[in-house]
Amino acid sequence: VMLEPFFEHCRALVQDDFAAASLMRLPVLELLKGNLQDLAVPERAQIGARHLMVFGPTAATASLLLQEELKDQPATVIFGSSFPGDKSVAAIYREIAHIKQAMEVGGCSMLVHAEDVYESLYDMLNQFYTQALGRTLCRL
């Protein structure tokens, strides 16, 4: 629901490039629910569903997702920081270690104001995994 205005704005920017505006209608909530349902069923999650990355205009987006869509699933919320002291390399490594731990536990991980680590998650988001010693590994 919070993301609807964002997608409406995006549609308005590119609407002239499409002959029919009906092609632009994205069922945002249905897409989110479908991806989250794949996450909840291990067999479907292994087939190749990509990791879902949702950008919202405020931290309230995370709260809404937790209350409405993730209420029956385990979820970890990881908050980034805007304090200058938290921009150090050591602080970013700690945040990445926290994300790595949440990934190992499984379930849904939500990053809020974690812009400093998004680039580090590129390989994971694109599923560049390797198998070693019976484990699935990813470079972070």
TrEMBL record:
It comes from the Eukaryota. GO terms for molecular function: ATP hydrolysis activity; ubiquitin-protein transferase activity. InterPro entries: RNF213 (IPR031248). PANTHER family: RZ-TYPE DOMAIN-CONTAINING PROTEIN. This is Rnf213a protein.
